[in-house]
Write a structure and sequence with these properties.
Layout: E1 2-6, H1 18-32, E2 36-42, H2 47-50, E3 54-64, E4 67-76, E5 84-89, H3 105-121, E6 129-133, H4 140-146, E7 157-162, E8 191-192, E9 195-196, H5 198-205, E10 208-211, H6 214-220, H7 228-233, E11 238-240, H8 267-282, E12 290-297, H9 306-316, E13 322-329, H10 331-343, E14 348-352, H11 356-365, E15 368-371, H12 381-387, E16 391-395, H13 398-403, E17 417-419, H14 424-440, H15 442-453, H16 459-471
Parallel strand pairs: 1-2, 1-6, 2-5, 6-7, 7-10, 10-11, 12-13, 12-15, 13-14, 15-16, 16-17
Antiparallel strand pairs: 3-4, 4-5, 8-9
Helix pairs in contact: 1-16, 8-11, 9-14
The structure holds adenosine-5'-diphosphate.
Adenosine-5'-diphosphate binds at residues 17-19, 21, 164, 294-296, 326-328, 354-356, 359, 378-381.
Amino acid sequence: MEIIHVSAECYPVAKAGGLGDVVGALPKYQNKLGHVAKVVMPMYRTPFLYNNEWELVHESGSYLGSTWFKYAVIREKTNKLGFDLYLVDIDGLLDREKVYGYEDDTERFVSFQIAVVHWLNSWEHQPDVVHVHDYHAGLIPFMMKYCHGLQKLRNTKTVLTIHNAQYQGWMGWEKSHYIPSFDNWKSGMLDWENTINPLASAVKCADLVTTVSPSYMEELRESANGLEMLFEFEKGKCVGILNGIDNEVWNPATDPLILANYSIKTVQEGKAKNKAEICKAFSLDPSLPLFIFIGRLVGEKAAEILPYVVGESVAMHQQQINFVVLGSGETELEYQLTELQKMIPGNFGCYIGYNEKLAHQLYAGADFLLMPSRVEPCGLNQMYALRYGTVPMVRNTGGLRDTVIDIGEPGFKGFGLVFNHATAFEVNESIHRAMGWYAEKQDILEASRKKMMAIDHSWERSAQEYLELYKS
Ligand code: ADP
């Protein structure tokens, strides 16, 4: 089967969050299962572009409304990622340093999608499946079905995977002329509440829809940033498939980004060495338990409670506790965390920004990972934490619910700490609980670390589930 993944992110080319991790891994595992999976994404100005060799495979031009733009498609020559990687170059629109956050993101991603469908339409054969990810590629199923110039793509099957339904790519109807000439009778397939909504359009037009965990699929029918009715109506073609993690990239035994590699057998010593390194970097005492948070500093992740949580916990536990936060996001929160570091430097460190290496080091060196998320479609951090023997402390939601069992569950099945509400009060209670385990039940905690490291969250299983879905 030939599968074309279309995405705004793909690790290690460009990553802003979990979407990049998934698109960097799933195609590799689909190829390992004997299929041909390829990735098409925008050509940003990232280090990966300059450090690799490329060949030109296609050049053409198209219209965005009345503006003509030229585009080129280049392919990475060596297949080093385990799949064919194609980048779409559009001068002045896509060739920027960041993935998102520009005023003309609508124009950037609509042009990208137009270039992709025109390029695919120029192929002599057709792929079996075009698999689009999130709203940045969400207009593609509509274009393939209803745009006049793309007849060759009409019968190609499309799958949408929703990594995050909060962002939908809304654009006013005054921009409808951006979309290549289409059957006007079908304009309702673009619309949600009098706005062009690329995510809603993809839910309506794709042959199948997946989300990145079964629980998130259920939650979307109740809370989907305005699309609840749509998910209820389309539930017949929606399936939740839990993400995997790339066990080759995220392996404490071989990870080149951490100081000391370790396995299940050596987790205690290995962790201690990595923890010492992290604590040195942030001037913290390595004999104290270390709690970390890694992620976007936004409301979805309940990041705004972090300053209270850290401040209260440090006071409650008489400075016998350490925290490190790695993240970026809301400016006010970034400021608060930076100030907090100045106020309690011996117990709290923060790194504001994106740092892949530090993320690996933190998973390896920490005792506990905090994830109080309000919304967590799948969540990869907790799965990386499990793989590195770091106890996840999570809110009972979305993919967190599907992957973490509380350590107090009967039958000694559990290995993490689970709480119900994203409030500073509940998170502090959970930290208090963790401190109890750390002080008095080290043996049980150590056994849990070994248990969680043995859990298989690899992509093999999920990649197989996607293939069965395509076949259906
Ligand atoms: P999201 O909702 O952001 O996609 P996920 O849990 O699915 O959340 O994925 C987050 C990914 O991004 C993980 O690989 C995590 O380690 C990484 N990440 C998030 N913020 C940072 C950061 N500031 N520096 C390094 N890695 C980060």
